[in-house]
Amino acid sequence: xxxxxxxxxxxxxxxxxxxxxxxxxxxxxxxxxxxxxxxxxxxxxxxxxxxxxxxxxxxxxxxxxxxxxxxxxxxxxxxxxxxxxxxxxxxxxxxxxxxxxxxxxxxxxxxxxxxxxxxxxxxxxxxxxxxxxxxxxxxxxxxxxxxxxxxxxxxxxxxxxxxxxxxxxxxxxxxxxxxxxxxxxxxxxxxxxxxxxxxxxxxxxxxxxxxxxxxxxxxxxxxxxxxxxxxxxxxxxxxxxxxxxxxxxxxxxxxxxxxxxxxxxxxxxxxxxxxxxxxxxxxxxxxxxxxxxxxxxxxxxxxxxxxxxxxxxxxxxxxxxxxxxxxxxxxxxxxxxxxxxxxxxxxxxxxxxxxxxxxxxxxxxxxxxxxxxxxxxxxxxxxxxxxxxxxxxxxxxxxxxxx
Length: 403
What we know:
Distance between the termini: 80 Å
Strand content: 5-15%
Order of helices and strands: HHHHHHHHEHEHEEHHEHHEHE
Radius of gyration: 32 Å
Helix content: 25-40%
CATH class of the largest domain: Alpha Beta
CATH topology of the largest domain: sialyltransferase cstii, chain A
CATH superfamily of the largest domain: Glycosyl transferase family 29
């Protein structure tokens, strides 16, 4: 710009075209030369170059703003469940209800579940799996406890999380099976309460409460749904992002067992038990807001053995090996867990029927079945085949009849 101004002044004094042509060809070099020689520049160029730092700061601020905008929906949570129309004043299937009552009225049959499980071709890795993690280092694991695949990363193992496991176990006074869950304590019946919409209107609540061990999953609520889902909880399987937020959901709970999907989950468990909050930076790595307080004492917490997830996944893979390995749902893992703990196992609220996209997905909300169509994490088809085999073999009993 300085060169151009100079040329215009020269042109007004001497209108010689050769000079104009010569100057125009040297415009860029002259401008560059003036810049490095510290000659006068236009004020708006100075403003531009001097504001690069401000531009960088603005870009960073916009980037952080976009990041926060993405996180807010994930971290925001609602303490209110979606309203449900109570359209079943009477049990929707009286025959199933009566069959469930008859099952409980009979004697408990020792080793019934595992004996029938052995008849299935996929059962090889599903027998006698330790239920909870009791050691924090691979070299400390005794011979009979070497089922834990420490060489695999979470959720199939604990590789890379040894330090976090040791810290979490140090906060647990009794990390193993409590005496009342030992098989030597007598014949036991388990019921795994799934979240399926088929449970809605079942009126199974009073029968579910009669089982010795009642296993629930993640945020599936009890309060307000006692008629269909029961009121007691023996073991609730959770990971941090799916732990119930209502303190009342833990009021009649014997145990909360952490399912480890990442090392940070173990830090969360240690924080909940010791009442020492996680750092703000750690909280950012959860994909949604996590509960920071659970009204239970330290002896009520456990860490689920990842071998249960590992072996459940292997069993599912035997049904559709061409699809590749996907993670089993927590419901399928809970069934395998129940087979380790109890002599007889029943299921309630299991079975996704993708042929009816408008059917209720969960018993506690209005979300519909078509919400499952887009998910790619779980192989629902393989799980249904697996659970159907368990039912047909007699290893488990389906109380709600959707399998």
